[in-house]
Amino acid sequence: MYTPAGLRPGTPVPLVVVLHGCDQSVLDAALGMQVSAFAQRAGFVAVCPEQSAADNVRRCWNWFQPRHQARGSGEPAAIARITDRVLEGCHGLTLDRNRVHVMGLSAGGAMAEILAATYPDIYASVGIHSSPQFGAARSPMTALVAMKSGGPDPERQGRLAYTAMGPQARVVPVIVFQGDVDRTVWAGNGDAVVRQWLATSRLADGDGPAYDFSRPHASNADRVPGGLSYEVRSWNDATGRPVVEYWVVSGLGHAWSGGESAGSYTDPRGPSATGAMCDFFDQTAMEREVAATATFGRLGVFGARAFLTSRRT
How far apart are CA 153 and CA 187, in angstroms? Predict the structure, then answer.
């Protein structure tokens, strides 16, 4: 767990859960994602659970096994318990239960979206980087198939994710990053993840718009100075609140976009995935009232954005 200096006792701050990928330690992943630097600058607490080599020899989260895809079971339940313990007793600090977010890379991204489907009452929004869609595999073999060529029909998986939410079902905003030359997780998985979450959001918001993958509400392209080009598409609900944001980075392989080169599985040439996710998290609290000040908005990574809550319960 990383707690930045200077936090004021009694002032609620966000909590971000960070999930590493395969063949990574929490320290390696946190270094590559620049977790401590962003937490210090923005004023949020970060907690980084670590997978045991006894549970997966490559330290992958077991996102492809059915018992780790349901509420109250396996690794999702363990991570949710860790999250709750941190929320209950963070050394005198006040953590805002309406601003708990989770982000992860590869197997960590897959587990992050499992948490979005199984614990939507805990996690306000989710950052998914380079992973297949929810429930794309049910075994190690089908995991390899999904990673290399894509998973099942996204509409079907969208319904499964909605079913997994149970009575806690709500629109869980997600931000997705995918490199277009990823040789570990085929780039088409990014499209499938977005289509799946658009389907899940449509079901969770029965009175909302029929989200269309081919018709985003906004789309723009840019390039990091001296680095990689990228495209960003976004879909919003009827009031303009974010539902899905999708970043496709040209020339990015299986690596955290814009990460620190001292960590593994990073590419500093890309736009900062950590910065973009922090900006996105800033707009997606579960609380009903607009906060007086933004926390992540102080980052200024892609320009300040107004704080906006999702108002989903």
Answer: 16
Q: Check which CATH number belongs to the domain holding 161 and give it.
A: 3.40.50.1820
Residue 155 is encoded by which pair of tokens?
């509409």
Q: Is pLDDT above 60 for 83? A: yes
User: Measuring CA to CA, which residue among 305, 301, 142, 112 is closest to residue 224?
Assistant: 301
List pLDDT tens digits, range 265-302: 999 999 999 999 999 999 999 863 433 334 444 343 32
Domains: count for the chain: 1
CA gap 148, 141 in Å, rounded: 11
* 313 part of a folded domain: no
Report how far residue 104's alpha carbon sits from residue 87's, in angstroms, rounded to the nearest whole number. 20
Residue 8 lies in a domain: no
Is 53 a domain residue?
A: yes
Q: Which of 120, 123, 182, 117 is nearest to 147 (CA)?
A: 182
Alpha helices in 183-306 (DSSP H): 188-204, 273-281
Pair of tokens at residue 4: 């930045």
For residues 35-64, give the mean pLDDT.
Answer: 96
Label the pairing between strands 242-249 and 256-257.
Answer: unpaired
pLDDT tens figures, 192-202? 999 999 999 99
Instruction: Give first-to-last CA distance, the chain, whole Å.
Output: 28
Contacts of 27 by beta carbon, 8 Å cutoff, 6+ apart: none
Q: CA 197, 203, 206, 209 torsion: positive or negative?
A: positive
